[in-house]
Specification:
The chain is an alpha/beta fold and about 325 residues long. It contains 12 helices and 14 strands. The strands form 3 sheets. It has an 8-stranded parallel sheet. A 4-stranded antiparallel sheet has the order 5-6-12-11, with no helix packed on it. The protein is globular. The termini are far apart. About 45% of the residues are buried.
């Protein structure tokens, strides 16, 4: 049947035919080795180290892909009050990724809990709620308002600090300590701190998060960039400046993950240009414990599932039970 005859989208057809839930198939494979891809973040255990990046996954994808094969669902960032996004255009592709200037629209904690959280909670994975603020003092009240909802909180400290001339909160270890310490006072749920790229020392920023009580750090957010129209040489984005993400930033983030993982004992979640299982393995080889898939999901909503399945299959093909064993086997070749 054609798409027109069924009235279903191409993406939906692909999800139905090529992405049935694979967990039963793996469990039923005769003689298959038991593969443990689980990772622990504080009190939270994820059954696989692959999850979407904040802002790149909405609960509506639960109808298209087997979300249960991911480790968690990460929400769009929730701010203390409702806010709109940036003016159009908000997103443009470049040769090796994209630049976005969405501006993180938010309905505030009340609006999020009323409209979005029930849909995230209905998915068969833990919900990690992303929280943002423009001052260090703004994060804890949002987390307190969210209460017992969600399995963990990801603190997006890549937001301009309005008390410090607009510099990223996450570029200042003292501000990171202030944010995390305040949030830790209002929740016992796991705290993940999402750090920016442009910092003097990613090691100092990661250590500040760990010392203040964070359970993991996410490295990193997009890189500030300004794409121009090829004909007019004028800014494409309505906000002029956006965030560069995708394959082009992977070598930059690999270095940051390598540095951060050597500075802290808590898990490092890598985010930047993850499109395949090999990308994830690259990050694991430099110290990451988990990965987030962002830009790839815009063109391929099933990308994160493909990465998770690819890791599972690579371990099975090598007849090993963990990613660490797989990396050790690769290193011995």
């Amino acid at each position: 049947m054609t798409t027109a005859q069924t009235g279903r989208s191409v993406v939906a057809v692909r999800a139905d035919t090529e992405f049935p839930d694979a967990r039963a198939a793996y469990a039923a494979a005769p003689g298959a080795a038991t593969v443990d891809l689980s990772v622990r973040i504080g009190s939270l255990t994820l059954h696989t180290p692959v999850m979407p990046a904040s802002g790149c996954f909405g609960p509506e994808l639960g109808a298209l892909i087997p979300v249960a094969e991911l480790g968690a669902a990460v929400t769009k960032t929730v701010f203390g009050s409702a806010r709109g996004g940036n003016p159009v255009h908000r997103l443009t592709e470049i040769p090796a990724g994209m630049v976005n200037s969405v501006g993180i629209p938010s309905r505030g904690p009340v609006g999020y809990l009323a409209t979005l959280h029930p849909r995230y909670a209905a998915l068969d994975v833990p919900t990690i709620i992303s929280v943002g603020g423009h001052r260090p003092s703004e994060y804890a009240p949002v987390v307190a308002a969210l209460g017992e909802n969600g399995a963990a909180f990801e603190l997006n400290v890549s937001c301009p600090n309005l008390d410090r001339n607009g510099t990223d909160i996450g570029s200042d270890p003292a501000a990171i300590r202030e944010v995390v310490a305040a949030v830790r006072l209002v929740t016992d749920k796991p705290i993940i701190v999402k750090l920016p790229v442009l910092v003097a020392s990613i090691a100092d920023c990661a250590r500040a998060a760990e010392e203040a009580g964070a359970d993991a750090v996410c490295v990193a957010n997009s890189i500030p960039a300004m794409p121009l129209d090829a004909l007019t040489r004028r800014p494409i984005l309505g906000n002029v400046i956006g965030g560069l993400s995708g394959p082009s930033i992977k070598p930059i983030v690999l270095r940051l993950v390598w540095l951060a993982s050597r500075a802290v004992q808590i898990p490092v979640i890598a985010c930047g240009g993850v499109e395949t299982a090999d990308d994830a393995l690259d990050y694991f080889s430099v110290g990451a414990s988990a990965v987030q898939v962002g830009t790839a999901s815009f063109a391929r909503p099933f990308a994160a599932v493909e990465v998770a399945r690819g890791l599972q299959q690579r371990c099975r093909d090598a007849e090993v039970g963990t990613i660490r064993e797989l990396l050790e086997l690769d290193a011995a070749l």
